[in-house]
Write a structure and sequence with these properties.
By secondary structure, the protein is α/β, with parallel strands linked by helices. It has two domains: 10-207, DHBP synthase, CATH 3.90.870.10; 231-321, 3-Layer(aba) Sandwich (Rossmann fold). The chain is 30% helix and 18% strand. It has helices at 16-27, 49-59, 86-95, 129-138, 158-165, 204-207, 240-249, 276-292, 309-321; strands at residues 10-13, 32-34, 41-45, 68-70, 100-105, 120-124, 142-143, 171-174, 185-188, 195-198, 231-235, 254-258, 269-272, 297-301. It is globular. The two termini are 33 Å apart. Residues 1-5 have low confidence and may be disordered. Bound molecules: threonylcarbamoyladenylate (TXA) and magnesium ion (MG).
Length: 322
């Protein structure tokens, strides 16, 4: 038995004192788990190459996958980008604070480790009181990817952060379950029309976005993603009960995520989601729960690809491919 257990990060309810401690830790170059409206982030001082490097080590993240920089206030945008396009100014005015990440030309002094070596940077102002208080107190831009080990489902509860990254994070601020549950929409805002690089919490309908070209995808979408330690299978809602029955008959432990009317009794893990917004909210937690319960295969009822349903289906397909 090892004599030294790995040092575990601490979880603290996000009181003003805990936020002050988190801000001091950020300024000292440590990693802090931060609640946002989308998912929990793994925050580091975006202006410190050394601190940001720690994010890549903790997550096991490919070095060419750039990080999103979070700001306390839209007025801070000029601290991290070289130029604010008219389109970016308009989108920021309409959607910030909120789950929209704008990709713009990066400021020259931003460490290249933060941008994954790209000339651009993704930036957003989160709509969460704890994240914004932390950013305002630390008074520095914060690089923060989702606080999961690379390839795993994103964390929507403080406990998920500790489970994946407890040995790397100094402190996790507990702000309760994430309200939205899927990540921000990433948009290239350098041109005259927004180009969606990653589907997310702000729908295409709300953005009036140009259709994404086949090559227009965030670098992160090249990698395996969102996959729990069990198989994920997508089925049309009508086919869910029969699919579950067939899998259970083979002796496997089966879980399901679907509207309650479709959920069979006796599952190893059953999560009811009545609509796409509810599914977005609980999806990652449900996948992690299925994994914890030793489920072999979790069957998920698909939703229509409109509104937030687009982001949900994008994540589900990737989870199923993992
Ligand atoms: O909601 C969110 O966006 C959460 C919370 C914590 O803010 N963050 C998040 O970060 O999802 P992450 O690192 O898990 O995903 C960031 C995505 C990746 O697919 C990455 O490739 C893309 O954004 N991205 C970041 N900077 C980019 C850039 N300069 N150009 C293109 N894509 C970029
Ligand atoms: Mg992520």
């Amino acid at each position: 038995m090892p004599t030294d257990a790995p040092s575990r990060g601490r979880l603290r309810a996000a009181s003003p004192e805990a936020i002050a401690e988190g801000a001091a830790l950020l300024r000292a170059g440590a990693l802090v788990g931060v609640p946002t409206e989308t998912v929990y982030g793994l925050g580091a001082d975006a202006t410190s190459a050394e601190a940001v490097h720690g994010i890549f080590v903790a997550k096991g993240r490919p070095a060419d996958n750039p990080l999103i920089v979070h700001l306390a206030d839209p007025a801070d945008l000029a601290r991290v980008v070289a130029r604010v396009s008219p389109l970016a100014a308009e989108l920021a005015a309409r959607h910030w604070p909120g789950p929209l990440t704008l990709v713009l030309d990066a400021a020259e002094d931003l460490p290249s480790v933060t941008t994954g070596g790209h000339p651009t940077v993704g930036v957003r102002v989160p709509d969460h009181p704890v994240a914004r208080a932390l950013l305002a107190t630390a008074d520095t831009p914060m690089a923060a990817p989702s606080a999961n080990r690379s390839g795993r489902p994103s964390p929507t509860r403080a406990e998920h952060v500790l489970a994946d990254l407890g040995e790397h994070v100094a402190l996790v601020l507990d702000g309760g379950p994430s309200a939205v549950g899927v990540e921000s929409t990433v948009v290239d805002a350098r041109g005259t029309r927004p180009v969606v690089l990653r589907e997310g919490a702000v729908s295409r309908e709300a953005l009036d976005a140009a259709d994404a070209e086949p090559h227009a995808a965030a670098p992160g979408s090249r990698y395996r993603h969102y996959a729990p330690g069990c198989e994920v299978r997508l089925v049309a809602p009508d086919d869910l009960p029969a699919t579950v029955a067939r899998l259970a008959a083979t002796g496997r432990r089966v879980g399901a995520i679907a509207p309650s009317a479709l959920l069979p009794a006796g599952l190893a893990a059953a999560t009811a989601a009545e609509d796409p917004v509810a599914l977005a909210h609980l999806l990652y937690d449900a996948l992690r729960t299925a994994e914890t319960r030793g489920v072999d295969v979790v069957v998920v009822a698909t939703v229509a690809e409109e509104g937030i349903g687009r982001a949900v289906m994008d994540r589900l397909r990737r989870a199923a491919a993992g």
